[in-house]
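Re: beginner question about structure tokens

> Can someone show what the tokenized structure looks like for a real chain? I only ever see the sequence side.

Sure, here's an example I had lying around. Input first:
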Amino acid sequence: MDVVAHARDAEEAVGEMAAVVERAAADERLLVGVGDAAAGDLATALAGRLAEHPGVDELVRYEVGPSVVVHTGLGTAGAVYFPAALAGTGR
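And the corresponding structure tokens:
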């Protein structure tokens, strides 16, 4: 994991996380996962924004597991992405 930005509130955090994925999706089509641990509203906002991006081929939601939560705490949300071409689903 890398720190890519700092945010003062949840809305800004969604914007910063989405911007990272959107920059990556400008160069290649992506498969995206949005996960959370008791941060449903934040994750829903992030997933909603990313689902609308034309470079996102597929978006799945998942629950963050205890190995992440022990380090980040409840209220964690974030996104992961992978090039669709490497998964054999690139268009």
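Each token stands for a local structural state, so reading them left to right follows the chain. The longest strand covers residues 30-37.
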